[in-house]
Amino acid sequence: MTSQKSSSAAPQPAPAPTAKEPKRKRGIARVAKLLDAGAAVFAEQGYKAATMTEIAARASAPIGSLYQFFPNKDVLADALIARYAEHVEAALDRIKAEAPELDGMQLGDRLLDVLVTHATERSLALSLLDARWEQPGVRPGLLREGLRRRIAEILTVWRPAMTEDEAQAMAVVLLQAMKSLVQLHEEKRYPGKAEAIAQWRGWVQRYLGEI
Questions:
Q1: Which of these, 41, 80, 91, 120, has the minimum number of CB atoms within 10 Å of its CB?
Q2: Residue 48 dihedral angles phi and psi, to the nearest 5°
Q3: Model confidence over 93-125: pLDDT tens digits?
Q4: Are residues 70 and 76 in contact, defined by beta-carbon separation less than 8 angstroms?
Q5: How far is CA 145 from the centre of its chain?
Q6: pLDDT per residue as tens digits for the range 162-182
Q7: pLDDT of 20 over the 70 cut
Q8: The Cα angle at residue 47 between residues 43 and 49, in degrees rounded to 5
Q9: C-alpha distances in Å from residue 3, one per residue of 6, 7, 8, 9, 10
Q10: Is the Cβ–Cβ distance between 107 and 201 less than 8 Å?
Q11: pTM, whole model, 2 decimals?
């Protein structure tokens, strides 16, 4: 007589906590205030030193309200990174809509302005990614890949004859140029700063003007 062993399924890992999406106008405004408070505290204290208690206090909100929308500090950090990505992607989408009417100089200026305009948000997002890069699920490359993809889409709308490979290669160059311009702006003081920024803009304009 053979005995049968009862098999039990391996326990499934608990789903990772996620941010709660507000549905009402009041909730949307509350979440925006909590995100602003989180951004301020993370910028001042750094990710590791910041506490949810301090963030709730900065937002003048009950701690329970903060945890209702953001179960932990990681979820709040992810939401801030996502908000930055949304703002930059929206700016790139606006450029894409205008692209057919732009010349190389205009397109270069529009692209270069995107990261400069969102420099403060970008700095915070990069610091949050850097502080958490070793954690599972944190993939800094996703943000970069998304921006390159959108820039490539802009280029193919701007110049329909451009191949996908050409657009992707140019997107890598242009995103690097956009990031470098932010660094030139952020460096506090150095000889010839204004001229260096002007020359960098001119190089990108000429690069696109040759297409």
A1: 120
A2: -70, -35
A3: 999 999 999 999 999 999 999 999 999 999 999
A4: yes
A5: 11
A6: 999 999 999 999 999 999 999
A7: no
A8: 100
A9: 10, 12, 16, 19, 21
A10: no
A11: 0.85
